[in-house]
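Dear colleagues,

As part of the handover before I leave the project, I'm documenting each prediction I ran so the next person doesn't have to rerun anything. This entry is a single chain, and its sequence is reproduced below.
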Amino acid sequence: MTHRTHREVRLAARPQGPVTDDLFEIVAAPVPEPGPGQVLVRNTVMAVAAVMRTLMDETSAVPMPSFGLGEPLSGPVLGEVVAAPGTGFTPGDLVEHHLGWREYALLDADGVHRRDPALMPDPAAYLSQGPTAWMGVVHGAEVRPGDTVFVTGAAGGVGSLAGQIARLHGAARVIGSTGSREKADRLVRELGYDAVVIRGGGPVEEQLRAVAPEGIDALFDNVGGEQLRAAIAVANRGARLALVGALSSQLAKDGTAPTVEIDTLALLARSITLRGVALYDHLDVIPEWNRRFGEGLRNGTLTFPHTRLHGIEQAPRALRELTEGRHLGAVLVEL
């Protein structure tokens, strides 16, 4: 292979608060040469997620390694195999792997997953956060027909799918939360939410009681904080509350994690289940989700709300705008 360069995004400094563009540097590096058993992939589209802000810190409670200072960031990405000597991969194969934030990636064959280009109408849908949404609705909140379901952080990459999945599982009423009236209106108009409470629009518990006068039966919580407290206060007897994300901690302006006071007597008295669920314990849902998502996108029962930015130089902006709540749904970067 002729020597050439590609671009990668490296972590230039640890954040002291919100994501800023000066925390990243875009560097030209040689395209790596694959050896036997290795796969060289030309990355085509990558996803950013709120957890990446957490992984920019030197240490975090997330069971994933933090990004190294001066090293490329990483994250979910689709690409096309360029060369794969001594492996079962063929040049041109569509694959998914975890070495995003660079235009080319070199991996051992066991770190690369072949994807069927015919399964999704748009292969970028493989980068949805649907597996987390599916896991939280099905295994965490155990949504049942007739339930009133509250999804916090409903406009994000996870929440924008969780509400749709809850409806597929028979939820009678789906309520979301988000940070702006514009997003709230879009959630109702485009994603089938029945009502939306707005962060900063008054006490969340009061808003939730107004739109769920008969209480909630299931919670899909991406946020924590005041929204989790409100859900417990409004939860019906036997409610299932799934903790799937902790955006109030991950996106805290000063970098400090807020604590949540929980009314444990309410949990006891009303037999409420509070359960943390993480995708790394439920990786078996990924192929199931991919099949169902492909079907749902084709027959119109599911949509993939997302924003695409173009060019690896836009990746820092993509993560910054995601953490600022600028977009509805997933945020992708075409490389």
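The CA atoms of residues 216 and 235 lie 5 Å apart. The chain is about 25% helix and 25% strand.

All the best with the project,
I.
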